[in-house]
Design goal:
With 229 residues, this protein is mainly beta. Helices cover 0% and strands 52% of the residues. It contains no helices and 14 strands. The chain has strands spanning 4-6, 31-40, 46-50, 56-62, 73-87, 93-102, 109-110, 124-130, 134-143, 148-159, 166-175, 183-192, 204-212, 216-224. Strands 1, 7, 10, 11, 13 and 14 form a six-stranded mixed β-sheet that branches. β3 (46-50) and β4 (56-62) form a beta hairpin.
Length: 229
């Protein structure tokens, strides 16, 4: 059974920091940092970005030169600029990508798939929130240079026969291996939720448990309403 590995958890690069000098009159563009869904074209280059509010934007320039599987959709965290007064030939907003990192986004697997080897090494939860058919989170891990493995465990799912809603209990698989706790880095994760849409899109209660450094196991619950497009 595959587990997602993370050799080095990267910070997105700081962009366009101003400095004193002769260019004080230069106006730096407004760059956003967001969790997004990226869609690739036939050559694997990124063609579109879709925000968690459902807006689709066309990629005019990608300085990260990211390549993924042809015609695929991937979950990413990106630094990007909305190009002011610039629309694509399709009438969409155009964007320029400065830096991009794919999130850790495997489909949750039933606990039985992990056998007796579910690892719950601790993390710190910096933030967690519901996105567009995803549960997004930024975690802080203590690391030196080792390999960390992440996955999502489906602990328990029930269906309300009357309302059609599901109650879904998930937890974080985290195997820090023998890595030393030398310093802290970020990990970006997005849990795919589409399969928990419930009967006729009735949605779900999503509860996600994480083992933390300071407080032990913490559980976060969210109401999930599936997107309609």
């Amino acid at each position: 059974m595959m587990r997602i590995s993370l050799r080095i958890v990267l910070f997105l690069i700081p962009l366009l920091l101003s400095s004193c000098g002769d260019d004080d009159g230069y106006v730096y563009p407004s760059v956003k940092l967001e969790f997004l869904t990226a869609e690739a074209g036939a050559d694997g280059s990124l063609s579109y970005l879709i925000t968690d509010s459902g807006e689709q934007m066309q990629v005019a320039e990608d300085l990260s030169l990211t390549k993924v599987d042809a015609n695929s959709m991937v979950r990413v965290v990106a630094n990007y600029e909305t190009l002011v007064d610039t629309l694509s030939t399709t009438g969409m907003q155009s964007v320029k990508i400065y830096a991009l990192l794919q999130t850790i986004s495997p489909e949750p697997l039933p606990a039985a798939n992990f056998g007796d080897s579910i690892k719950t090494d601790p993390v710190e939860v910096q933030s967690m929130w519901m996105g567009r058919d995803y549960l997004n989170m930024t975690l802080l891990i203590k690391t030196k240079n080792g390999q960390h493995r992440f996955h999502f465990v489906e602990d328990w799912v029930s269906l309300d026969a009357i309302t059609g809603r599901r109650s879904v209990y998930l937890s974080l698989y985290h195997d820090a291996g023998s890595d030393s706790e030398a310093f802290t880095k970020r990990a970006y994760l997005s849990v795919p939720l589409s399969k928990y849409a419930g009967t006729e899109g009735a949605g779900s209660l999503i509860c996600f448990s994480v083992n933390t450094y300071d407080e032990g196991v913490k559980t976060y619950c969210f109401d999930y309403t599936p997107s309609r497009n």
